[in-house]
């Protein structure tokens, strides 16, 4: 099972771009990389998922280098409401959550 | 946007009592999951369910736990004899397939179970 490593916490200010990098050195060929967001007392919410290169949606971008041993979630112009825990996961047959990155956005 | 609905939102029960947590997954999803999150800790996988049977379960999911899809729409988690350490948020999730899809799992808003 591929383990992921990401920073425990990050601070940012409103309007800034935030990049959260995750390492997954043991990712298998068939595995996808997926990111979730969780607010206190709520269920995780899917943000974005990818296999390689770059994926973009209305919320975020996901950058995956050719070796796929890491990935970077990019949140453009964060706001206070982006304060949450962000989880990087390797999708196999189920999601196994780590401790995530606690992002605090300040005014 | 389709939602996974969980009821009740809060449940308080006495130790040793049975509880049933209910979930209505998204209607065209085929895979169903239960997770739990003890306060201040990480989200833990309990069980996955597909085609009316358990696909995989974690070591947390012992004989005290069972899941059922009784009527084609509900998906339930039963804890037979609750213990204090079962106090947690329980999240149900569903997905259209096990992997290779773009939409991710959809999680419900959870049931906060408090065992006293």
What keyword list fits this structure?
heterodimer, A: 107 residues, 0% helix, B: mainly beta, globular
How would you characterize the overall build of this protein?
The complex is a heterodimer of chains A (107) and B (116). With 107 residues, chain A is mostly beta strands. In chain A, 0% of the residues lie in helices and 49% in strands. Chain A has strands at 9-13, 18-23, 32-38, 45-50, 53-56, 61-64, 70-75, 84-91, 101-106. A five-stranded mixed sheet of chain A has the order 1-9-8-3-4, with no helix packed on it. Chain A is globular, with a radius of gyration of 13 Å. Chain A starts with 8 loop residues before the first strand and ends with a strand. Chain B has 116 residues and is mostly beta strands. In chain B, strands 2, 4, 5, 6, 9, 10 and 11 form a seven-stranded mixed sheet that branches. A four-stranded antiparallel sheet of chain B has the order 1-3-8-7, with no helix packed on it. Chain B is globular, with a radius of gyration of 13 Å. The termini of chain B are far apart. The chains are: A mainly beta (107), B mainly beta (116). Chains A and B meet through strand 3 and strand 4 of A and strand 5, strand 9 and strand 10 of B.
């Amino acid at each position: 099972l591929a383990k992921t490593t990401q920073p425990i916490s990050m601070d940012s200010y409103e309007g800034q771009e935030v990049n959260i990098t995750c390492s997954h050195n043991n990712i298998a060929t068939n595995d996808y990389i997926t990111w979730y967001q969780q607010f206190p007392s709520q269920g995780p919410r899917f943000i974005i998922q990818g296999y390689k290169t770059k994926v973009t949606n209305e919320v975020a971008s996901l950058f995956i280098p050719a070796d796929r041993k890491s990935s970077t979630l990019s949140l453009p112009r964060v706001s206070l409401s982006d304060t949450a825990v962000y989880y990087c996961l390797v999708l196999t047959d189920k999601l196994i959550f780590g401790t995530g990155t606690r992002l605090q956005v300040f005014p | 946007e389709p939602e996974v609905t969980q009821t009740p939102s809060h449940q308080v029960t006495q130790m040793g009592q049975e509880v049933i947590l209910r979930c209505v997954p998204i209607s065209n999803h085929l895979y169903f999951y239960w997770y739990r999150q003890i306060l201040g800790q990480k989200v833990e996988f309990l069980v996955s369910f597909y085609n009316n049977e358990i696909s995989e379960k974690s070591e947390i999911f012992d004989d005290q736990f069972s899941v059922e899809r009784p009527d084609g729409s509900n998906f339930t988690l039963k804890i037979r004899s609750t213990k204090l350490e079962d106090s947690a948020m329980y999240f149900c999730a569903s997905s259209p397939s096990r992997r290779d899809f773009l939409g991710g799992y959809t999680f419900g808003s959870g049931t906060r179970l408090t065992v006293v």
